[in-house]
From TrEMBL:
A motif (Gly-cisPro motif, important for rejection of L-amino acids) lies at residues 138-139. Keywords: Cytoplasm, Hydrolase, RNA-binding, tRNA-binding. InterPro entries: Daa-tRNA_deacyls_DTD, DTD-like_sf. An aminoacyl-tRNA editing enzyme that deacylates mischarged D-aminoacyl-tRNAs. Also deacylates mischarged glycyl-tRNA(Ala), protecting cells against glycine mischarging by AlaRS. Acts via tRNA-based rather than protein-based catalysis; rejects L-amino acids rather than detecting D-amino acids in the active site. By recycling D-aminoacyl-tRNA to D-amino acids and free tRNA molecules, this enzyme counteracts the toxicity associated with the formation of D-aminoacyl-tRNA entities in vivo and helps enforce protein L-homochirality. Belongs to the DTD family. The gene is dtd. It comes from Lysobacter stagni. This is D-aminoacyl-tRNA deacylase.
Length: 146
């Protein structure tokens, strides 16, 4: 499982004309599910999303996690993160989990984060064409693997 996280002052996901997920200050996480991912990867990624220290403390150092700040978390499934880009000029998607496997895993990740985080967890819409807008704060962007 991979997550590209970005510290944001705001982010939202629109499908068609409808806003389906929106947060203020917090993290936007684009999540890629791989075929061998399971419960252990879900638990570890939830822990990292909520605890990864990307927010400033009183001294201005990145020492606070999302759980410390109470900020929002916007989770967006993005199978292209798990693409094989090592060769050629076109990505291969055999390294990404099939939708019938990825969707329930993504939903379990969302539920795990909702159970552990009181700051609000929003999502995009699995499998939909989404338009994501964000204001990256920093910029601060990290690629996490579970």
């Amino acid at each position: 499982m991979l997550a590209l996280i970005q510290r944001v002052t705001q982010a939202r996901v629109v499908v068609g004309e409808e806003t389906v997920g929106e947060i203020g200050p917090g993290l936007l996480a684009l999540v890629g599910i791989e075929p061998d991912d399971g419960d252990a990867q879900i638990a570890r990624m939830a822990e990292r999303l909520l605890g990864y220290r990307v927010f400033a403390d009183e001294a201005g150092r990145m020492n606070r996690g999302l759980g410390d700040t109470g900020g929002g978390l916007l989770l967006v499934s993005q199978f292209t993160l798990a693409a094989d880009t090592r060769s050629g000029m076109r990505p291969g998607f055999s390294t990404a989990a099939a939708p019938e496997l990825a969707e329930p895993m993504f939903r379990r990740l969302v539920e795990t984060c909702r159970q552990k985080h009181t700051g609000g967890v929003e999502t995009g819409r699995f499998g939909a064409h989404m338009v994501i807008s964000l204001v990256n704060d920093g910029p601060v962007t990290f690629l996490l693997r579970s």
